[in-house]
Each structure stands twice: as structure tokens, then as C-alpha cells.
Amino acid sequence: MKSGFRKSLLIVMLLWQVLLLAGCDYYVSEQPEKQSAQQVLEPFRNQDSRGRYDTIGKLGTQSISIPAGVIRGWARYIGDPGDFADPKIKAKYQHPPKTYDLPIESFGFLYRITDGDVYTSFRQTEEDYRRDNETLIPYGKPFPWADVIIYGEYDAAPLNFNAYVQEGFKISKEVSNIDYIQQPQPLYGLTVYKANNGIDPKTGEPWKSDVNAKDILLKKDQAGNIKTYIDCQFTQHINICNHMFYSDKWHIRVLIGYNRVYLPQWQEMESNIIKILDSWRVSPEGRLLGKQIGKA
């Protein structure tokens, strides 16, 4: 009996030593990470009604706190590996601590054109978006949601589309033999350029189906710099506008995609998107400067 008890006790002690060693290994491997994490003071982060934390960082010139559930996908910070980067590079990449000074490269969200709201998961807008998908798109009705991508601008390049437009017209002529002709009348306050003056040279009739023959609409500031660039397709059943504009205040470039039926509201869209960003501004300590649009 004593011999069996001693054997059992010996086995228990050996197992306990193994567990202690394993615990020591875990402690040694984890401790540096914990120490390094403790060295960086975690900034205050706002939360929504479900306890989800905001995405924080600096967008262009402004520190922001983006409500949880708004961003489509994730926010990319300056220096993050690209979507198609080598997986080994991604695996080794260590993201710097997120603060209100960490520069955001880009992020996207859904904007509702009809009332200036944004899509947020677990908010009424989620149900609205699902309903609109089911009841409008299958029947070819205009979809009132716009895809928005915001890009922070951090280099010394000018915030205008002057060179972009000149190069685009040049390439259209050299590659597609398409001349863009300025139209005599503006449209919704925009200067309009039509491919070959709006006529398909093959048929002698207005363009009906050529993805290279988009309408291009521009808006310049008082100094003559192009600050808004819009191109609209009209290929068969596709009537989509890609709309870009710069904000000098924020030092950002904004890309919006929407149904052409909403083109008359282009100025309102620009204004409302800046209002949305303004509602996300925070102090250097993370204190909100206004009521967040889109917060659940």
C-alpha cells in the first residue's frame, strides 16, 4: 500500500513540475509583450451603447473617433501592409499603438443620400439598407446609398485634380481616339466635358454603350484649381457616377460612388460628408467635440 502511494505521489510531483516549467516558459514568452504594452499608455476610447470601441487616429489634419459599426471592413493606417502584400510580411508586421495622432491612410463607409445619415451595424440603418437592397435593386430603382472612401493626404502634392484631368484627356486621345469637348452650358454648377462632343463616331449618334466615353464634370475654386472631379457612366443599364473632391480644411481626398440620378445633389453630398467627419472630431485626449453621426 505504502509503495503504491509513494508511486502515485511521485507521479503527481513530476506532473506538477512539468506544469510549473510550462508555466515558466509561458511567463517568459509573454512577459516582454506585457511589459511593452504597459509602457504605452492606452488612450481613452469612446464606446457605443453596445460597448463597442470607436476606431481612432488622425485623418489628415484632424484627430477623430469613428463610431463602431460604421466602417466597412477596417481602417488602414499609414505603413500598414497592403491587401495583396506577402502574407509573411503581414505576419511579421507589428502595428504601432493606436493613438489619436496615428495617421489614417483610408477607410470606407456607406452614406445615405436622401437624409445625410450613415450606415451603422445594429442600428436602424442596418435594417433600412437591407430593405433597400431587397426592394429597390432587383427592380432597377435608384439605390439611395453611396459608397464613400476617405483618403488622408500627407505629402506635399497639391490638393487639386489639375494634372489628373490633363493626363486623363491625353490618354483618352492617344489610346481611345476620344476628344473631350467642353459643353457650352454648365450642369448643376459643374463644367461638363463630353467624349467627342457626345457623339459616337461609328454611328453618328449619341453614345449608348462605351465605357470609355464617360461624361466628365468639374468644379474649380476661385484660383482656377479643380477641386471636384466627377465621371458618370451611361453604358447600357449602368448609370454610375464616381465623384472625387478635396477638402483643404481636412487635407483629405473623398471618393463617392452613387447612381447618376443623384448627381444634382453633388454639393449637398460634399457638405454632408464633411459634416459627418466634423461630428467625429475629438480633442487630443479623445473628448468628443460634438454629437457623433452614426453612433449606435
Compact overview of the structure:
29% of the residues lie in helices and 24% in strands.
Please provide a written account of the structure.
The chain is α+β, with helices and mostly antiparallel strands and 296 residues long. The chain has a domain at 1-39. Helix content is 29%, strand content 24%. It has helices at residues 2-39, 87-92, 124-135, 162-176, 266-279, and strands at 55-59, 62-66, 76-77, 104-112, 145-152, 180-182, 191-195, 199-200, 205-206, 215-220, 226-232, 240-247, 252-259. Strands 3-4-5-13-12-11-10-7-6 form a nine-stranded antiparallel beta sheet, with helices on both faces. Strands 1-2 form a two-stranded antiparallel sheet. It has a two-stranded antiparallel sheet with strand order 8-9.
What percent of residues are in strands? 15-25%
Q: Biggest sheet: strands, sense, closure?
A: 9 strands, antiparallel
Q: Structural class of the helices, strands and pairings?
A: alpha+beta
In round numbers, the mean pLDDT is 86
**Count of DSSP-assigned helices:** 5
Overall radius of gyration? 27 Å
Low-pLDDT parts are 1-38
SSE run: HEEEHEHEHEEEEEEEEH
Helical percentage: 25-40%
Q: Let me know the number of strands.
A: 13
Side-by-side strand order of the widest sheet: 3-4-5-13-12-11-10-7-6
How would you describe the shape? globular
How many angstroms does the end-to-end distance come to?
Answer: 67 Å
